[in-house]
Fold this protein.
Amino acid sequence: MKKRILTTGGAGYIGSHTTVELLKAGYSVVILDNFENSDRDRVARLPLIAGTADVRLVEGDVRDAQLVADVLKHHKIDAVMHFAGKKAVSESVADPLLYYHDNITGAVSVLSAMRDIGCNKLIFSSSATVYGNTNHLPTPETVPPSVSNPYGRTKLIIEEIIDDTAASLSNFQALSLRYFNPVGAHSSGFIGECPRGVPNNLFPYIAQAAAGIRDYVQIHGGDYETSDGTGSRDYIHVVDLARGHVAAVEHLLSASTNPTPHRKVNLGTGQGHTVLQVLQAFSKACGFQIPYRIGPRRAGDVAASLADPSLGLALFHWKPMLGLEQMCQDHWHFQKRERNKPGSGVRMPLCAHETASNHLVSNETHPLTAGSRDVPN
Ligand code: NAD
Ligand code: UFG
């Protein structure tokens, strides 16, 4: 029988790409999302991209532990991927309590629901930000964490909460995946990252500058100790990252016993690129030079960040395949489709859809899912 995965935040940037790869790998998926940073259009596109309609949507808040427990029980979930949460470093500095409340409450809610229902496989979206300003490059998971902002601290605290929970329960197994810099988009151009407002991150900013939405790219610092003075990062194609989740969940579901109930694993490529190298590659992808200016450093930035990805390879045989050129091409392809779309989005029918107030009832149906959804109570 097909295994069924719950993706909290599955309508978001990384969650939607992972949902597609899970569907393609033969899993059944239930998405739980409150759409605070995504929209229903993106979910509607997933069955079309994946070529299968075995995906359901529950609209609701992951901080509602009773809702999460009901979803786990009703849909007989085999494993949870917990993506939902807030992710903007600068917002977390301005409003740390919002981040501590939302991110930690969400994780505690997921863990308590899993404990209560007896669902015992978890994948958690952690971040390379837990390494802070380390000089140990490339960085293996054994480097002691050192966080420098509230967002990063929520990731570290949640990893520790998972440590304690896993130790208290028999047969509980978890992987915290520490993402480096996820970029790019699905090659179809149907899903990608759509930041609201002015983008903080490099790729969406460059894409908007290339599309003429921004006048130029402001490079934050040209005096770092890197090959050309600009900051260096380990960018990873979001589809490679998504495939990393599939490999990780396969590992969890196939392991009957595990001496280490909770492991932290880097998801990066082990290749670093500077801001100027990214600009050059992106300019090549779109066929013209993207204007830029070099300004002062951005507060809180590190000079360089680089993964040691060997543990993921050893544990679940995952290896990223897509290079910088592909990341830029796919990101640009998505940006062009977004720019050319009439109105705010391509209108497509919704897939099986449930709401928090009546979360076991499918009230809107994608033609592809009609007849295959669970019977409403
Ligand atoms: P995203 O904002 O695109 O996706 C998060 C999704 O969760 C959104 O669809 C949002 O609507 C949903 N959500 C938020 N709060 C919710 C709640 N309380 N209940 C239900 N749904 C909720 O973010 P993303 O880039 O896809 O990131 C996913 C995860 O990966 C996050 O936990 C983030 O911290 C982590 N991460 C992201 C990056 C990155 O650069 N994108 C890097 C490291 C780690
Ligand atoms: N940069 C610019 N101009 C911009 C935006 C970024 O020069 O307009 C530079 C930054 O200074 C940095 C590099 O581009 O050198 C990458 O910056 P991003 O903001 O894209 O990414 P960060 O490495 O700063 O942070 C990201 C996420 C964090 C996450 C971290 C590690 O935003 O949430 O990766 O995963 F924690």
Summary: Confidence is low (pLDDT under 50) at residues 343-351, 357-377. The chain has eleven helices and 14 strands.
